[in-house]
Amino acid sequence: MSADVMPITENKNTKAKAVDTPWKTAMRRFTRNKLAVIGFIMIVFMFILCFIGPLFSPHNLFDYSLKNKNLAPNGTYWLGTDKLGRDILLRMMLAGRISLLVGLVATCITVMIGATLGAVAGFYGKLVDNLIMRVADIFMALPSLPILIILGAVLSDLKVHPSSRIYYLMVIIGVLNWTTLARLVRGQILTLREQEFMQATEALGLKDKRKIFKHLLPNTIPVIIVAATLSVAGAILSESALSFLGIGVVPPTPSWGNMISAANNLIDFRKRPWLWIPPGMCILITSVAINLIGDGLRDALDPKTKK
Amino acid sequence: MAKDLVEFRNLETHFQTTAGTVKAVDNVSFIIREGETLCVVGESGCGKSVTAMSLMQLIESPPGKIVGGEILFEGEDLLKLSKREMSRIRGNQISMIFQEPMSSLNPVLTIGNQISEPLMLHMLLDRKAAKKRAIELINLVGISRPEKIFDSYPHELSGGMRQRIMIAIALSCDPKLLIADEPTTALDVTIQAQILDLMRDIKQKLNTSILLITHDLGVVAEMADYVVVMYAGKVIEEAPVLELFQDPQHPYTKGLLKAKPIINQKQERLYSIPGQVPNPIDLEDNCHFHDRCEFCMDICKVKQPPFRSHGKDTHKSACWLYEEEREVL
């Protein structure tokens, strides 16, 4: 009996061509999807516009000048001015910062709550699962817009300062959206926990916390990424809707929603389209772009599509 | 003789199904000694894996439940330990290799990550020390370029390499007992031989006891010191490996040995034991093998044979053929 074990010698030819990691494969599939790439370029453009653009603006956010009010687009004011004589372009870019931020932060909150609760529900099953998923059902049964309106009104009643109001809004939108993600993650975990490698972790004596967060959740990342991407668009739309209704971000802080609502009378709407078309286009471009990326990611991360 | 490491005493593991109770493991007793390889052999569904799972307490409950008996590990009854105490033993003192190397590794974590995990948990090593030890382990199981493998993902490795990694993980905390549940079933023959060599080598180096579950008598002949044959949840014969191959007592064991191809002997058809394993639900109190047995007698259909030695002390079997009592009936 030989004491030394014959080592496995690898075939140099097959190893020279490095095996793709799942991420590389996904990236390749994603970049091959034209619509997704267009969406990605659009969203990068929006980010550059909103976060870097204002630095080059000669105007100031609080430059009121009534003599310049309601100017049509011209050389100084590229997108015209509003009824207080403020530059629309600058306001639109700054509003974009807020809207994109709301989308991102709200989604982070959604992912944190949704993934954790979904994973816990799926992993433990039985009573825990029932409890969490019934709460999720209750959340889903409530129509979100009326709830958002009520909470917005409560914020107004509590006299929350306009600048900190935006943070409350992120949390509210984030918290109300956790259910979809929780369901998706739970479903994934339910199948994953029956896999053999989970039995192996049990045989290694790992703790539950580690099993959930180290072994199970990373396996659900594709689902989380897709759901999160789509929820960014949803959050931006909710924020815009709320701000349009006057209970989201309140003036003077600009947001795409409240910029459009500033044009909610017939004269402004018909005679001064520069007031509402730019922020409207921004909302449109952003949400379309994010949805395109989301769809692209879904196809790219789906192991069943072989391309 | 070496010290006893694990002793199963009248272990009973039952599964509740809608059709009735399945006695997957019924009154099973045997002993694994230190530094010894014990093979459990039997057809599919005869309770081999459930015995091992009971030892690890990985029986899914419900439907499964260990309803009786004791499993002594170094004199301590594992069935009486709390969940926390048990998870300290799992992966640390007793570890397990699974049948399917393809699905037993987490696809999204690197190999290194997965080997380091038990090291950091049970041996309380820090990340750096764990990495060093993990690379040693990868080397130990005979994979070249361990540093590279440390950072690869399971899908980049072949089945044989993955099974080696599984063995490395199982060995990470110097377990006293290694349970291998059909470790070579999913691998092709050349790799099987390598893996078995590896296990034998490791047993010698580390003096680990091995509980090897298999239905391949070739594997048994190569690996085992001691063999336990199970049928329908019961141990029907146990003996040192040479004894068993030279002088099988139970007709079932004889059948198994006959069903094995022999090199240099031309056979038109391989022998197979007629019939099937009985339906495990609500088995009667008789010899469960009686309807497939060529030596079946009247008493076999109504009474269970006792399990004891006939002749040599170490060789025990449960069959009426060797009992005096049958004449009385």
Write a concise synopsis of the structure shown.
Chain A is mainly alpha-helical and 307 residues long.
**Number of structural domains of chain B:** 2
Using DSSP, what is the number of strands of chain B? 12
- How many distinct beta strands of chain A? 0
**Classification by helices and strands of chain A:** mainly alpha
Radius of gyration of chain B: 21 Å
> Quick one: CATH class of the largest domain in chain B?
Alpha Beta
- CATH A-level architecture of the largest domain in chain B: 3-Layer(aba) Sandwich
Q: Assign an overall shape of chain A.
A: elongated
Family (chain A): Belongs to the binding-protein-dependent transport system permease family.
Pfam families (chain A): BPD_transp_1, OppC_N
Protein name (chain A): Peptide ABC transporter permease
Transmembrane segments (chain A): 35-56, 98-124, 131-154, 166-185, 216-237, 274-294
Helix-strand blueprint:
The complex is a heterodimer of chains A (307) and B (329).
Chain A: H1 12-16, H2 22-32, H3 34-51, H4 88-124, H5 126-141, H6 144-157, H7 162-176, H8 178-192, H9 196-203, H10 208-216, H11 221-244, H12 256-261, H13 266-271, H14 277-301
Chain B: E1 4-17, E2 20-33, E3 37-41, H1 48-56, E4 64-73, E5 76-77, H2 83-89, E6 94-97, H3 111-122, H4 127-140, H5 146-150, H6 159-171, E7 177-181, H7 189-206, E8 209-214, H8 217-223, E9 226-231, E10 234-240, H9 241-246, H10 251-258, H11 298-302, E11 308-309, E12 316-317
Parallel strand pairs in B: 3-8, 3-9, 6-7, 7-8
Antiparallel strand pairs in B: 1-2, 1-4, 4-5, 9-10, 10-12, 11-12
Helix pairs in contact in B: 3-4, 4-6, 6-7
